[in-house]
Design a protein that fits this description.
This protein has 323 residues and is of the alpha+beta class. The protein is 60% helix and 14% strand. A six-stranded mixed β-sheet has the order 1-2-6-5-4-3. A hairpin with a 4-residue loop joins strand 3 and strand 4.
């Protein structure tokens, strides 16, 4: 008998109360879900399932890339996937899900932020028909349903990004360039984060599709082909959004340059227009006898000429759309 299977002596109720472990069983298959695992959960898994110590230690560490560890001799696999989520500031963040899959068990460990995973387990825990449907086809099928739910929850996030990109495109030439620049930066960050989180999962899911281990009890290429197609579509959508945002960013940069040049031209012509008045004011401040004192009509005449020149310069600039 496999020594890794579920122990017949579960932990005492007091110990269970201090953890966030939930478990459902059906047709000799157990699904153990642990939200926000702690060191006591790690010890429990090591004792109950006899998992490799290095793999168990990965639970409490942040793994930088998704991974698949196959233990064919011990008849279990260890899968790490990263999925995007939304934080309290409505920004895209990364969530990690660790999954152990064996002959008669599936163990999921996560930070409790991914609603599809919580809903899937809640359905198995509260609805008998859902439990039979999820756990009644073996561990491989349950793994497929978990991965499928996690992958498909990415699409609404990308649809949201598409809507934000469309809004940016409409607002591209608005006057509030600072607000536009801030929103553009936020969307760029979200899309980069989506690409950073989603893309590394593709080779892992493709590797899962090729598994032939009998203890999984599932035609893996047939079922996981849908997941591979979905992750491929997600990657294509992210790449397309990155391209569109790059074009919008370049266009916005050109708009900012044109706006800056327009402001500089306005400043230049305004400066030119007031230079004659500055010269007159400077002359009036000199401690010398000015012609204006002996010829009273000279100053109004000069003033009229200066005003005419100023208005002529401004009119010429305006007619040529220089500002």
């Amino acid at each position: 008998m496999d020594t890794r299977t579920r122990s017949s002596n579960p932990l005492p109720p007091a110990t269970r109360a201090n953890t966030r472990r939930r478990e459902v069983e059906h047709a000799n298959l157990s699904w153990l879900d642990i939200a926000q695992p702690t060191s006591s959960d790690v010890s429990y898994l090591r004792e109950r399932f006899k998992f490799d110590s290095l793999l168990v230690e990965d639970i409490l560490s942040t793994i930088q890339r998704p991974k698949l560890d196959i233990r064919s001799q011990e008849e279990y696999i260890f899968v790490v996937v990263h999925m995007p989520g939304i934080d309290r500031d409505n920004r895209v963040v990364r969530s990690e899900v660790d999954i152990f899959v064996g002959r008669d068990f599936v163990v999921t460990l996560h930070d409790s932020t991914l609603k599809p995973l919580r809903r899937l387990f809640a359905a198995a825990a509260t609805d008998e028909s859902a439990r039979a449907q999820l756990l009644g086809h073996g561990p491989g099928y349950l793994l497929y349903r978990i991965i499928d739910a996690l992958v498909k929850q990415c699409f609404p996030l990308l649809y949201r990004s598409e809507e934000e990109i469309d809004q940016l495109d409409v607002r591209l030439f608005e006057q509030n360039t600072h607000l536009m620049a801030r929103d553009l930066t936020d969307i760029q960050r979200d899309i980069i984060m989506l690409d950073y989180v989603i893309s590394p999962n593709q080779p892992i899911i493709e590797a899962i599709q090729q598994l032939q281990d009998k203890f999984l009890r599932l035609d893996m290429p047939r079922y996981f082909g849908d997941c591979v197609d979905s992750i491929g579509r997600l990657k294509a959508m992210v790449d397309q959004q990155k391209t569109v945002v790059a074009v919008i960013n370049e266009t916005h940069r050109n708009v900012l340059i044109q706006h800056t040049h327009k402001l500089l031209r306005r400043f230049m012509f305004t400066t030119i227009a007031i230079i004659p008045f500055i010269v007159l004011a400077s002359l009036a401040g000199l401690n010398v006898v000015l012609p204006f004192e002996t010829q009273p009509l000279l100053f109004p005449g000069i003033l009229v000429v200066v005003l005419a020149l100023t208005l002529g310069i401004l009119s010429y600039a305006y007619n040529h759309r220089w500002f």
